[in-house]
Write a structure and sequence with these properties.
- The complex is a heterodimer of chains A (188) and B (231).
- Chain A is built from eight helices and two strands, in the order ββαααααααα.
- Chain A has 188 residues and is mainly alpha-helical.
- Chain A has two domains: 84 residues, Orthogonal Bundle (Rna Polymerase Sigma Factor, Chain: A), CATH 1.10.1740; 58 residues, Orthogonal Bundle (Arc Repressor Mutant, subunit A), CATH 1.10.10.10.
- The two termini of chain A are 40 Å apart.
- Chain B has three domains: 40 residues; 50 residues, no CATH class; 113 residues, Rieske Iron-sulfur Protein (3-layer Sandwich), CATH 2.102.10.10.
- In chain B, strand 6 and strand 7 form a beta hairpin.
- Chain B is flat, with a radius of gyration of 23 Å.
- The chains are: A mainly alpha (188), B alpha+beta (231).
- At the A-B interface, helix 1, helix 2, helix 3, helix 5 and helix 6 of A face helix 1, helix 2, helix 3, helix 4 and helix 5 of B.
Amino acid sequence: MPDLPQSKSLSAAPAGMKPAEQPGQIYELPGAPDPTEQALEDLDLIYAYLYARVGNRPDAEDLTQQVALKAIPRLRPDAAPAAVRAYLFAAARSVLASHWARRLGVPEEQLLDDLSQAEAEGEEPEPIERVRRILDALPANYRRLLELRFLRGYSLKEVARETSTTPGAAKIMQWRALRAAAEVSDVR
Amino acid sequence: MSDSEEERLAGRLEGLVRQLLAGRSPNLKLSDASERRALMVAARLVGAREAFPRPTPEFKRRLAAELGRSVPVAGSGLSRRAALVAGAGVALGALGGASAQRLADLLPKPAPGPTKTAAERAILEPQPETARWYDTGIRFAEMSDNQPHRVTAGAISAFVIRQGEQLTAMSSYCTHMPCELVPTGSQLRCPCHNLSFSLQGQSLADGYDLPSLPLVRVRVKNGRVEVMGTA
C-alpha cells in the first residue's frame, strides 16, 4: 500500500484513512489500487503523452502497447502509485526514442538523452500550451502558416489562398517555419 | 543551401506532413538533422490538434485482452514478445476480485446487433422557408479521400467527406451529447466523452447504441461543394 509523505501538519487521520503505526504522520489509503490496475488506468496518460509527440493514432496505439507489454509485467506488487506512473513514463520515453530512431535513422541514445533532459516528468506544460509557446516565439508569417496548416487542417492550396501566395511558395515557407519551430522547441 | 535543394527538402517534408495530417504514420528515413527536427515538431503540432487524446475503448479492450492472455508454458522457447505477454498474464492472474472484474469489463464483448440501414438514417432537413444552399469554397477536385472538411451553413455545422467519387456531408455534432466532433485520423472523435464515429458517420462505441450522424444535403455545383443549411 502506498504511503503518504510524512507531514507534521497532519495531526489526525482524515476521514476514511486508517492510521498506520505512526499516528499523525503516515496514513494508509483504503482501497488503494493494485499496481497493475493502476497501470492500466495510467495507460490513458501514456497514450496522451505519446500521441502529443507522434501526432497520429496508429503510432500512439502501437507505442502505448509496447509500453504496456514492457512495463506492466515488471511491476513490483508493492509499487506505490507514483512509482508505477514514473516507471510507465520512463518506459514511454524509451519506447518513443526507439520509435524515432527507427523512423528517422538516428542513434537511439541521442534521442533518449534529449527526451530525458527535455521531458523530465512533471516539468513540461500541456501539449497545447507547449505548442502555443512555440508558435508565439515565431515570426507572424510563420505562426500564421503553421496555425492554418496544422491547427486548422488547411491544405497547402488553401494556405496559399489564405496568405495570398502560391502553393509552391507556401511549401517552402512551411519548411522554413517548421525548422524555425524546431529551433524554439525542445526538439533536438 | 541552394534553392533547388531547399525545394527538394520542402517537398519531401510536405509529403510527410500530409501523411501526418491524414492520421497516418509518416514513413521515411531522414538523415538530415534539420529535416528530422522539422518532422518531429510537425508531429507535435498535429498532436496538439486534439485537446484530450485518449485511447479508444476498442484499443483498450484489445490491449487488456492481450495482457490477459495466459501463455503459461515455461521453457517453451517463447519469443521475447510472447514472454512479456506471458508475464503479464501471470501478473494479471494475481489480481484481486475487483481488478479481475475490471479486466473482464475491458475484454471484448459480443458483437453488437445489426446496425441501422442507410434508409433509417436521419437527414438534417431545414424548413423549406429557411433552407438555402451554401457555397463552402471547397473544390471537389481538390478534395482528398477520407479527409473531413468542417463547414458551417447557417445553423448547420457539418463534415464534408470525399470517398472516391462519392461526396457525403453529415452533422459534426455527436449524437450522444451536443459536442462538436474532432477529425482524428480515420475517425471523428467526441472531445467530451471517449466516443468516436467512422467517416461514414457510424458510431464506433461498443456498448452504446448511438444513432449515426445525421446526413446533411450536399451537392457539387460548378466544381464547388455546396451544403444545404439555414438562411
